[in-house]
Amino acid sequence: MPAGFKYFPAFLDRQAQEALVDLLRQAMVEAPFFMPIMPRTGRPFSVRMTNLGPLGWVSDRAGYRYQATHPDTGKPWPPIPEEVMAVWRAVSDYPHPPEACLVNYYREGAKMGLHRDADEEDFAAPVVSISLGDTAIFRIGGPERGGKTETVKLASGDVCVLGGQARLCYHGIDRVLTGTSTLLKDGGRINLTLRRVRKPE
Ligand code: MD6
Ligand code: FE
């Protein structure tokens, strides 16, 4: 594993996971999942997305970017719940709060190709990920495309951190193992990624 990759299995217990799903359901009334599309091809992602926090990550014909409002409703993103901020404080080893919490929703068959999280100004801050629902096969490699990769199974309640050398390493979700969790009533997987977008003053 690249240096700076940290894995905290079962960081959240079942009760904390259920509480988090309730908070997300409430936030999703204000900020429903949208369908991001690839900038060049216009193809939709198989993952649905929304965001929490002052900034949210979006992808459309114009490109990838962070913006303060939901692309469909035009409204500001709901705040990041305190319970989620607490996870960042516990594992990030970074003194400033995150500004964006991207919420990825994987229904049956959804996956995410290898990519680097590189749309942020501040790579000194790690990206913190929280997994909920069905187990995913997470693949991580090095800083260049085409290098050696390894996989980790991310189960409901697991937290992982991409900091240091791992911050700009390629990673993705090969697939989600249907029926491996009872957390989400309709099945599937939700992943939260917390990011610092701008350099702190
Ligand atoms: C996912 N995760 O777990 C996709 N990015 O659904 C990511 O793309 C990711 O887990 C940056 C850091 C950690 C991650
Ligand atoms: Fe990522």
Explain what you see:
- With 201 residues, the protein is an alpha+beta fold.
- The protein has a single domain, classed as Sandwich (Jelly Rolls), CATH 2.60.120.
- Helix content is 13%, strand content 32%.
- The protein is built from 2 helices and 12 strands.
- The protein starts with a strand and ends in a 6-residue tail after the last strand.
- 36% of the residues are buried.
- The mean pLDDT is 97.
- Fe (iii) ion is lined by residues 115, 117, 171.
- Residues 104, 112, 117, 127, 129, 136, 138, 160, 162, 171, 173, 191, 193 line the site of N-[(3-hydroxypyridin-2-yl)carbonyl]glycine.
Q: For this structure, what is the CATH class?
A: Mainly Beta
Helix content: 10-25%
- Small molecules held by this entry: N-[(3-hydroxypyridin-2-yl)carbonyl]glycine, fe (iii) ion
* Number of self-contained structural domains: 1
SSE class: alpha+beta
Instruction: Identify the CATH homologous superfamily.
Output: Alpha-ketoglutarate-dependent dioxygenase AlkB-like
CATH topology (fold) name: Jelly Rolls
CATH architecture, by name, is Sandwich
Strand-residue proportion: 25-35%
Put simply, the count of helices is 2
Along the chain, the helix and strand elements come as EHEEEHEEEEEEEE
Shape: globular
Mean pLDDT: 97
- Please tally the β strands and state the result: 12
Low-pLDDT segments: none
Distance between the termini: 32 Å
Walk across the major sheet and give the strand order.
1-10-7-12-5-2
